Amino acid sequence: MNPYDPMEIVTQKIERFGILNDENREKNRPMFKGISMFVRSIWPSADQESIVLGTQFFIFSRIFDDLIDSNEPEFGIKLINRAINIFTLGKLEDDPKPYEKNIFDLVQNLQLRVGDQHPLMNLFRIAFLDCFDNLIPWQNMKKLNGDMSMNLYYILRRHNIGTAPTVFLGLMFIVKRLNYEIFLDPLLKCLWDQGGRISALYNDVLSYEKEVRENDVRMNSFHFMKTQNNWSDQECLEFFEKEMDKCFEQYFIHENLIIQKFIPTLQNKEDQEEFYQIIGFFHKLISSLLMMYLKKPNYKSPDSIFVELRN
Ligand SMILES: [Mg+2]
């Protein structure tokens, strides 16, 4: 065993918390491997501790989402309230579940690293609360009939895709010099909102067939645009290309606005470099998500309508 390998450290931690055991090791290996590759890809220059914490973050998000998805809302609400207590009160219940120990450990370590009242720490916690609040309404929307529209979809998907907590965690890893007040600027929110939309559109297209197979396609925009408009796959893809172009256009407009607003206020080269590192992190986040979706084994099928997903 290599004591400096972040993946070994994460594995030891999640074994200790009870997430990983001999029964589920083989089954979960691809998921953990995928997450660890993704973390290294979005934070290529992060230190060992950041890689460990980033991996713990995505492991929690993955397990928690699946748990809420596969349980009745009443039980889901109980789990959500327990998770909220970890983020707001720093309180772990007396009978903690393995994934709760994992996220508690992450929150504690982040606090130790940056301080309990660090603005980015608080933005991270608040972003998580927004995601938690969205889980049950999202599940309810799945059960309702009637047409979805793209604008309603974008609002609901904003927290479902979970961009904001990832962004604030990333900022905690990257920022060493810049003034945190920069990150309260609404222009930055526009940036990750557009990034979230782009990621969601990619996810919907590439997870479409898997969700059809699993009968879980109701909130997939590729699906509802297709059925509501009676479009062929090709017509649907053309719509998605245009939609993505719009999102990318907005994304780059906001990125330029942010650069024009803040770069002239930064006095030295190191600050400016750190600022561009953050801009680069956003790019990596979107491209790494796309790369991950394209590699996901459960998105693939021999006769996929998307050539990229045939295996
Ligand atoms: Mg999907």
UniProtKB/TrEMBL annotation:
Q: By its UniProt entry, which Pfam families does this protein fall under?
A: Terpene_syn_C_2 (PF19086)
Q: Which Gene3D superfamilies match?
A: Farnesyl Diphosphate Synthase
Q: What is this protein called?
A: Terpene synthase
Family, similarity comment: Belongs to the terpene synthase family.
Q: Name one GO biological process term.
A: terpene biosynthetic process
Q: Matching InterPro entries, A to Z?
A: Isoprenoid_synthase_dom_sf, Terpene_cyclase-like_2
Q: Name one GO molecular function term.
A: terpene synthase activity
